[in-house]
Amino acid sequence: MASKTVKVSNENYIWLLHLASELQRRSNRPVSFDEVIHTLKEGKMKSDKLSDLAGSWNISDKEVKKMKKDFRKGWKKWKIPSV
């Protein structure tokens, strides 16, 4: 297999590094980024744990405040049907 150089952002590099770490933990052996990408392509890196998403979404404090404001606005409009 011929090797190629691919440029990725630091954020994507760290994301791949975390995925490689998870795959290595699951398989109990060293893994390459190529194997990680292949595993992702095959759809085999699924997780059922919500906690696996922790820290994966980087947003600013301003964005958090806007989301909370939008949630509150939406919750005010939400009506629970009476039984």
Rg, rounded, reads 19 Å
Helix-strand pattern: HHH
- Main sheet makeup: none
Class by alpha and beta content: mainly alpha
Query: How large is the share of residues in beta strands?
Result: under 5%
- Arithmetic mean of pLDDT: 81
Helix content: 40-55%
Strand element count:
0
Structural write-up:
- The protein has three helices and no strands.
- It is mainly α and 83 residues long.
- It has a domain of 39 residues.
- Helix 1 packs across helix 2.
- The longest helix has 18 residues.
- It is elongated, with a radius of gyration of 19 Å.
- The mean pLDDT is 81.
Topology:
Blueprint: H1 10-27, H2 33-41, H3 61-77
Helix pairs in contact: 1-2
Key features of this structure:
83 residues; mainly alpha; 53% helix
Give a brief rundown of this model.
The protein has 83 residues and is mainly alpha-helical. Helix content is 53%, strand content 0%.
